[in-house]
Design brief:
The complex is a heterodimer of chains A (247) and B (123). Chain A is mostly beta strands and 247 residues long. Chain A has one helix at residues 69-72, and strands at 9-11, 17-19, 30-32, 38-40, 50-56, 64-68, 81-93, 100-107, 110-111, 118-124, 131-137, 144-146, 164-171, 182-189, 199-206, 220-225, 232-243. Chain A has one domain (50-243). The model of chain A has no long low-confidence stretch (mean pLDDT 91). With 123 residues, chain B is mainly α. Chain B has helices spanning 16-26, 44-54, 59-68, 72-83, 93-104, 110-118; strands spanning 4-7, 10-13, 31-32. Chain B starts with a strand and ends in a 5-residue tail after the last helix. In chain B, strands 1-2 form a two-stranded antiparallel sheet. Chain B has a domain at 44-118. In chain B, a hairpin with a 2-residue loop joins β1 (4-7) and β2. Classes of the chains: A mainly beta (247), B mainly alpha (123). At the A-B interface, β6 and β11 of A face β1, α1 and β3 of B.
Amino acid sequence: MTGKIITDSLQRPNGDTFTFPMVVGTGGPLSVDATGQMLFAPPVVQTKRRHSTLIDLHNADVAYVDVLWDDLLTGLDLSNLAFVEMKAVGISASLAVGRVKFKGLSAPGVTIDTGYMGGTHSTKYGSSSSRADGIVHNSNQGWFQFVNYTDMAQTGHAYGNGNAKFDAILCPHAGDAPGHVSCHFNGSYHQNGNYLAPNTETSAWASYGNNAGPASFAAGIRMYTTGSASVFNRGTLEVTAVLKVEA
Amino acid sequence: MALYKMVRGERVEMTAEEIQKHEADQAQGTEPVELDPVYRDLSDVEFMGLVRKAGPLTPAQFVEIMQTSTVDAVVMLRIMLSMNKAGIARDAELVGEGLQILTTVEYLNEEGVDRIMGAWPVE
């Protein structure tokens, strides 16, 4: 059985009177449309400064990972992207010829293949108390990488997986505020050798002299393996966009 | 063998064209940067040793410069060296002026100066 009660207000004994709205309105969590139907107001959208995505590479067997800014927040582009954080844990690949390399994406699936970047690294390696420092450049090929001293071990290595962990800050903007395309890494990894303890590496990639750097990473970033037929099969990557204006 | 990529969190098989491009990317490597040498500051003894060996100077010339020469410019150079308390940098005024004096009085020639500057020890 259905029916209706016609009234314009409700009141508990000795309580306050609640009066139903008599006109169309949308001023609160409840509203009334033109037909008199009571509606819930649309949920309030919470804006945030940081938007991220998590990529699980365990048994993924992928040659590269493309992360688009649009994956982090629908419609996000460089105009509202201050910088990007990348955090990786336990990344390694199927072959020992292992570096984790990056290129910008000018459009989905389209890498930025030119642009000088210079890289400086400081490494402590796990075979002894020795350290190795070095400065390299990318031959105007647009990429940068972690690690820089030597190759990481492959997944399943007798002395441990490559196990790249890094905390990186990426500036995807070329030539305007806040600066050239650049990336700074703090991290560790297991070297491809019979070493018990991990290597540590601090490295920075940025402009190389007065040479033109890569174009702005307009659409996103690609992370890929080195070594022919090597694929990522272990680890987790989190990519976070830090916005200029909350959205 | 099929290769896969991850795009928007989804694992997708790569096309032959994408595999070819990826393999070309993988083959790219670093180039070491040639750094400008960092020259070490020298003591007075090291500086005069460098001048003597690379100039080169004969023992007699060395003794004249350091002790017996009465040529004003050479005596001034001796005084400047004796007054110097700090390390001698490669681009210091004392070096340029001192080698010019030794060239003027013909203990050195331009090639000898180039040899001295070229043999300056680095860090």
